[in-house]
Automatic annotation (TrEMBL):
Superkingdom assignment: Bacteria
Domain PpiC as annotated: residue spans: 82-175
Stated name of the protein: Foldase protein PrsA
Top enzyme category: isomerase
Amino acid sequence: MILNKVLEKQYGKKVKDSTVNKQFNKYKKQYGSSFNAVLQQNGMTASQLKDSIRSNLLLQQAVRDNTKFTDAQLKKQFKSYQPKVTVNQILVSKKSIAENVIKQLKAGKSFSSLAKKYSTDTATKNKGGRISPFDNTNTSLDTNFKKAAFKLKNGEYTKTPVKTQYGYQVIQMVNHPAKGTYKDHESELKTQIVDKRLADSDTLHSVVSKVLKKGNVSIQDKDLQNVLSDYLSTSSKKK
């Protein structure tokens, strides 16, 4: 594909194989024993998945290189920024059960023992309710869950049940790093800004036009949409 070739020529040296492999291994870990089945469902081989990951990273690099980061942008993004937090959680079906769990926590019962006894989340109940660390960019967790979690300090737990799409949850904060200032997190903030721009079709059209022009590839505006759509559909099969 012409776009991939042009991106590779302009940004290939900036996308390291180690970064591709890291992302690939993240998917392997995420899907575990189902990894090969997921690949088959998407009509992909492991090699094709790596190519897909590289394609995404090339486009990400193109957007990054065509983004002028200002202090105003960074400060705006910092308002919604949250560093990665680590929490334990107990999921139950009824509000009354969650209230009972909170009552027992106040009485001194350990979160771990209560998770094992009450939680309906089979993936975490025997691990003290521990879930993977997450930040403000996480899209898999319920919004109410994230809002409640980000308000907690280390060692604190939610004093009222948190209503989510899964039921009622009680959250305990294990590690909530200090947010600091936007200057402390410039790299993460820039990545979050780039990710937002990647999700904006107008931005992608603009960046791809510049990339193709720089690569001396002449293309009509009416054809640009098709080129970009083909590229994105190919590189998003892994999702």
